Amino acid sequence: MWFAEGNQSAGATFTLLGFSEYPNLQVPLFLVFLTIYAVTVVGNLGMIAIIRISPKLHTPMYFFLSHLSFVDFCYSTTVTPKLLENLVMEDRTISFTGCIMQFFSACMFAVAEAFMLAVMAYHQFVAICKPLLYPVVMSPKLCASLVASPYTWGVVCSLTLTCSLLALSFCGSSIINNFLCEHSVIVSVSCSDPFISQVLCFAIAIFNEVGSLAIILTTYFPFLPLSEKCPLLGGGGCQKAFSTCAAHLIAITMFHGTILFIYCVPRSKNSWLMVKESSVFYTVVSPMLNPLIYSLRNKDVKESVRKLLNHLIQFG
Question: In the chain, helix, strand, coil percent, each to 5?
Fold first, then answer.
């Protein structure tokens, strides 16, 4: 039955308002977001390339980091190009199929990023709290399984929510007060009762936030006693590990902090504007900052970049 309703909606079109309430800022915003996207693409693809090229970075930590960079690149590419197009084009419409596909992709990579950060937290726990067991625990097979899990769960969550949206009907042309096809704005323009889809989205969002944050907090809690002993132990290994943890915690705070702010702060008359501005941070800005955070705080990455640049200069 819901397939029939979904087919009736196939011809519907949506209009993404984006930031049209700032007509004089369309070009400046385009230049800002274009710069951010360019840095995101270069930063994340560059991180992946450096990790693949440098033998020194062929370790589980950088294996996970390369996949985080891949998720960030895909996440940003799902959202930002359409945002840029709507800032310079008068026609801000998007087809029903295009909107659903954007939601599916954005949801999948958002969930994958949440649990990829949790996987990286578990890796840090093993590296710091179980150093003698680290080579055994972090086997290639386990690392592959840990990386595959966020992608798999992201597809499951995204497919479930997408099917719930396809069960709704949409009439003609609808205006979406956002720059991306996010679940809440899609159901807000539905012609049918979205209650089941909303409950499903709420349940999945709560499970993902609580689940990923529980893994992160559980794995980072044992670090507190070690952080007090670290100065007494001496050596660069401990400082290097905690420096990586600090970078990881910054990335976690940015991603989860923004999401919790959007969905936990009480709504007001200007809530849609607040949601749009906050969404920019975790969909556009955060994917740009992650590679910068990890590379600027990581001596191994900076050293690998320096060697690669010297090599290119010598043979260029």
Answer: 80, 5, 15
